[in-house]
């Protein structure tokens, strides 16, 4: 199934434009990280690219590897800054409806602050 078209009015696009308030943890020219408004762990941060157009992981190809790699590195730095490095944390990218993705703008979840348990 092909990815859905990018909606420039999705909630993350609106947060990136400053139309919806958010608790910003990190931002630079490339990425924005915010605290999730409905956290699934004591620490739940969303990292998203500033550029529009990528709805989710299924949109990625080889040309995206450099900036996606930088996004993962940035997420690990944020996790370290949040004090999660010693006990551990989880990085998650959901893909599509069945994968639990609720916003069609590529983003990465940082989850930590408690034991998260095994997947599957």
List descriptors:
120 residues, alpha+beta, HIT family, subunit A, globular
Could you walk me through the main structural features you see in this protein, from its secondary elements to its overall organization?
The chain has about 120 residues and is α+β, with helices and mostly antiparallel strands. The protein has a single domain (about 10-65, about 70-110), classed as HIT-like (HIT family, subunit A, 2-Layer Sandwich), CATH 3.30.428. The chain contains 2 helices and 5 strands, in the order αβββαββ. It has helices at about 10-15, 65-80; strands spanning about 25, 30-35, 45-50, 90, 110. Strands 1-2-3-5-4 form a 5-stranded antiparallel sheet, covered by helices on one side. A hairpin with a 7-residue loop joins strand 2 and strand 3 (about 45-50). It is globular and about 40 Å long. The mean pLDDT is about 95.
Question: What's the helix and strand layout?
Answer:
Blueprint (H helix, E strand, L loop, with lengths): L10 H6 L7 E4 L3 E5 L7 E7 L15 H17 L7 E4 L15 E5 L8
Antiparallel strand pairs: 1-2, 2-3, 3-5, 4-5
